[in-house]
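Reading a protein record of the kind used here takes little practice once its layout is understood. The reader may check this reading against the record printed directly beneath this paragraph.
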Amino acid sequence: MKGTMRAVIKPTAAKGAALATDWPIPQVGPKDLLTGDLIGGDTMATANAEFLFPLFSEQAVKGLLFFDAGNAWDGEVDLGDIRIAAGTGIRWFSPFGPLRLELGFNLDPRDGEKASQWDFTVGTVF
């Protein structure tokens, strides 16, 4: 659809850390029936929660537990089709910028989807 923005949730999959913060498993949202490619939707819902805790305070290293939920739809919204992921990770606020290493778990994997995924990120999420 030319000239129309469409929501595509790209959970870093975990991502990294989640739908809004990089979905850690596969990308979610409406897909082309012939190719399986993401085509995006016109409606999106996301929610995430993170619990950060100090591991090594003097070195600015923190541990992380996260939970993410969400999806994108084209047309009718189906809240029964919410995708969920949870995971853990480490964040280091290094002298040259933040570093993130996270492991996300797809809590309800579908055919062809990974059950888990590692994610490494340098910098901040915009």
In short: DSSP finds no helices and five strands in the chain. The radius of gyration is 16 Å.
